[in-house]
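Minutes, structural biology subgroup

Action item carried over from last meeting: produce the structure token record for Flagella basal body P-ring formation protein FlgA (Helicobacter canis). EB confirmed the sequence was re-checked against the source entry. Recorded below for completeness.
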Amino acid sequence: MRFFVLLLCFCAHLCAKDSLTHFIEQSYMHAYKDYDLHITQISLQIPPSAKDLPNLSCAAPNLCTLSANALSKSSGTLIAKIHNGTSVLSVPIAYNIEAELTIIKATGLISSNVNITTQNTATTRAKLSTLTSTKLLPQSALGKVSARSLIGSGGLITLDKVKERVLVRKGEMITGIIRSDNLTLQTQVQALQNGSQGDIIKVRNQSTQKILRAQIIDESTAEIL
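Output recorded by EB:
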């Protein structure tokens, strides 16, 4: 009988760990769904006082939470709110996750306003624990963004280093769209500023040398305001 009771306790403990690790795994997989995250191990440190709880899990009516900041690191604390009879216990469970994911690095010096594409970047795998920033650029964004500032060769490309793709560049001749009532006219104007989709920039009419305001609507195209 004693052996049977111990076996039941052991099985309950395993089920509890499975539920907790599954919650952590799913939370990280969702947070890094764009980075091909591969988890190899999740370690838990359950407080001794909570190990004998019969319903230590993330299954309803219990509630498990991870802070947004926790997901930016490879270790943290899971808070499990466990219904124990008429009371609710808050159990802090420390964890460590071993995982790797895909990151993007510059293959050479990328100057400010240069478009970030597959031509000037390379993807590689890195351990989650080695990253100091998890606001990473996903592969799906390549070709859709430009460098906000200078990015060094071999530099990790993160979201704070990029901005919307530059569609118009200073000094370029671009198409200016003029709308008047039911008429739409096109003319060539010179961009006096860089700009992305929706930006309002200054342009110069080459024939009159007049400075105009225009809103960027496409690649090398802006609507005269």
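Discussion: The first strand starts at residue 38 and ends at 45.
Next step: EB to file the record with the rest of the batch.
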